Amino acid sequence: GTEKALEKSWTDIVDSHESMSKTQRHQQEALWELIYTELTYINKLTIATDLVMAALSHCHRYGFLQEVSPTMLFSNLPSILDAHQLFWHEVMYPMLQEVRLTGRPFDPLRLEAGCLQFPDRFPAYFEYCLEEERNVEFTRRQLDTTPQFHTYLTWVENHPQCGRMRLGGMQAKPHQRITKYPLLLKAVQKTTEDQPTKNALERMVRLVNHFLESINGYLQLKEDTLALSVAAQRIEECKIEGLSEEIDKYVREFCCFDLMSPVRGVGPNVIRKQLMEETLKVRIRKDTKLVVLLFTDVLLMTKTQKKSDKLKVVRPPLPLERIHCIELKDGCECEH
């Protein structure tokens, strides 16, 4: 398994530490910080799985807290732990052992292959970050409503093995750790004097940042999709009638509009967003109040239904690229 502790300092294993320049010492300290915090993180995740989740499974065996599953508290945290244990054994530990055996300084280039594999090594973070807020909210709700959960959590958090960690802190650890890698690598790069090594560290920082951006993009995509789904549920199915049953068939085929459908002319990762909603007075035959919804690519004119909270589309959807806006003079009887 992964070791539980390291030497007190990098100077215990690097022979030439006394003859190093200030910059070289700072570089070694930055690399030691990366190694030390990685092992600390792994050990804390291990506490979450081997103590907190194991204690919950023990409660289940005796019929308690059946409504609380490990995934509701920690999502796929065991997968994240597995990924970091592998990262330790394949990347961090070999670099550490090389220094222990030779006494030579830590070589940042030993990190390059592992850091350039971040997207392949750590895909579990997409799911964890997506469900983190839901897990925290579930925990809060259980604390407010379930005395048994409060008792379980009090026992876990006061266990000596827990080291004064709180459940909320454990849930936040993965998000905090994955976003810290660019800072840790930049600290190494800043204190590296060899230009090729500096360039390699720049590549590592760039790729890790790109990986974090891809997680943020994924979360935004999910958030936008959910928001659009909520907006779509408010709107009744758009029904546009033709002049006869036969014409109706063709009208429905070509004139149907699904708010959840892809935005035309862009990639699948661009989700339609609701930008504005206004209740406007429109004069047709008589003054009519319409709820007008402005989306990324379309304008919907709807009317509130008396028997429900839903909105009925009363005019054909207006694609924004075909709309011409003309400012009318004051005093004109037409509004909006």
From TrEMBL:
One of its GO terms (molecular function) is guanyl-nucleotide exchange factor activity. Gene3D superfamilies: Dbl homology (DH) domain (1.20.900.10), Pleckstrin-homology domain (PH domain)/Phosphotyrosine-binding domain (PTB) (2.30.29.30). Pfam families: RhoGEF. Coiled coil: none annotated. GO terms for cellular component: axon; endocytic vesicle; plasma membrane. Residues 26-218 form the DH domain. InterPro entries: DBL_dom_sf, DH_dom, PH-like_dom_sf, PKHG5/7. SUPFAM superfamilies: DBL homology domain (DH-domain), PH domain-like. One of its GO terms (biological process) is Rho protein signal transduction. This is Pleckstrin homology domain containing, family G (with RhoGef domain) member 6.
